[in-house]
Design the sequence.
């Protein structure tokens, strides 16, 4: 089966999470692998929530290709059936086509190709196509990392997580994700004194107190932190744009506007260079004629390496001032893999070879998290890719978690070839 057919079949298996039902997709892939005589198993901590693990080759080296089998809900307004898996006009159509059944199909097809060639590997290629990534991974990679980490232990891993290639001045820039920001979700609580809404001056209005706090959060101007990988990325972008600027924390925003690239990408880089604070849920008051004595606001805070929980609490306190309660509701450290390691150089070299002489490959960090967090917590270097064919249509990336998700067959084959060749080079 070629990668587009594998992807098409995977899309037809509805693995919307919740509830997931990834076991059906894991069984489909296991069937293909078993036919080729490849050992695989399904780890299923909860009925229906299966993750596929397959291994091929023997020896001390270990390379892991990770992906996830669940997808986010499709919603309405599609121009085709979200679970049709149709292959039409050079595209594979449906939910999961770029997140992340493409990578699952590419990984499995890479392994099948190596098996077909009879490649004599000096190590193992491991495939983990997991459940539950879109809801935090507790039934998938998270479960495996806690209960059977040896099944996925590897010298390094490739996973999803990088932005798609970006065209700047006719040059294609490819990305390797080397880190993910951490989360420090916080809850702010304002308390007041309740009274009748017709004489509000008798009370103390908690909603009004919170309104001031929310305005202060909106005005937050966080300090800029440039990790070396981001400095390298910005320096390269400046060079491609022929700008005479050396990136520093002081000139990042100016540099970003001078670069004049895609807005989504610009804002993504801005968020990669600082802590972000976004008040996203608010609740207070019970009735129009009662002055509220309680108001609560949930704030999405994303942090960079070096920013602790204490730092976040202090920053929020300094912004909103005394008299409000501030608590962390969820905390996860940022995770990071060095771009100085040999596997990074191998990936960079292969990417630039495959994408043509005008392509460059650069490191980025993500503003959100993937299952790579579990790998990095286990000490496994993990790199994210979003590789596409150099001629792909950049508007495809907006279909991720959106309507009309799809991938071009060329990009799917590019990914498959990348994974096949990377395994050949690393494991032989
Ligand atoms: Zn994903």
Sequence:
């Amino acid at each position: 089966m070629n990668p587009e057919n594998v992807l098409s079949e995977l899309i037809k298996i509805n693995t919307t999470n919740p509830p997931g039902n990834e076991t059906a997709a894991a069984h489909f892939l296991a069937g293909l692998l078993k036919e080729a005589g490849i050992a695989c198993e399904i780890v299923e901590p909860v009925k229906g929530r299966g993750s596929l693990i397959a291994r091929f080759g023997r020896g001390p080296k270990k390379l892991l290709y990770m992906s996830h089998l669940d997808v986010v809900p499709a919603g309405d307004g599609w121009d085709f059936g979200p679970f049709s898996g149709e292959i039409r006009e050079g595209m594979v159509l449906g939910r999961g086509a770029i997140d992340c059944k493409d990578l699952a199909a590419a990984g499995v097809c890479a392994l099948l190709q190596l098996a077909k060639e009879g490649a004599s590997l000096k190590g193992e290629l491991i495939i983990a196509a997991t459940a539950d990534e879109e809801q935090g991974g507790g039934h998938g990679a998270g479960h495996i990392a806690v209960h059977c980490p040896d099944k996925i232990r590897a010298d390094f891993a490739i996973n999803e997580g990088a932005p798609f290639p970006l065209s700047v001045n006719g040059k294609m820039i490819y990305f390797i994700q080397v880190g993910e920001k951490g989360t420090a979700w916080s809850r702010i609580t304002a308390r007041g004194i309740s009274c009748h809404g017709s004489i509000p001056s008798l009370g103390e209005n908690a909603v009004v107190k919170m309104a001031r706090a929310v305005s202060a959060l909106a005005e937050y101007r966080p300090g800029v932190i440039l990790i070396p990988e981001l400095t390298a990325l910005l320096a390269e972008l400046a060079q491609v744009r022929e700008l005479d600027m050396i990136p520093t924390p002081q000139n990042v925003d100016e540099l970003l506007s001078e670069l004049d690239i895609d807005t989504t990408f610009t804002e993504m880089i801005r968020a990669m260079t600082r802590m972000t604070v976004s008040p996203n849920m608010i609740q207070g008051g019970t009735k129009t004629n009662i002055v509220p004595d309680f108001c609560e606001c949930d704030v999405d805070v994303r942090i960079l390496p070096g920013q602790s929980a204490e730092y976040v609490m202090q920053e929020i306190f300094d912004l909103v001032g005394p008299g409000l309660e501030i608590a962390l509701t969820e905390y996860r450290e940022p995770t990071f893999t060095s771009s100085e390691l040999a596997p990074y150089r191998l990936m960079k070299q292969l990417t630039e070879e495959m994408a043509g002489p005008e392509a460059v490959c650069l490191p980025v960090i993500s503003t959100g998290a993937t299952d790579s967090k579990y790998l990095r917590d286990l000490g496994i270097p993990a790199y994210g890719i979003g590789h596409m064919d150099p001629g792909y249509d950049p508007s495809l990336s907006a279909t991720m978690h959106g309507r009309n998700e799809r991938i071009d067959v060329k990009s799917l084959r590019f990914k498959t070839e990348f994974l096949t060749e990377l395994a050949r080079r690393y494991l032989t």
About this structure: The first helix runs from residue 3 to 12. The mean pLDDT is 96. The pocket of zinc ion is lined by residues 68, 99-100, 133, 160 (CB under 6 Å). DSSP finds twelve helices and 19 strands in the chain.
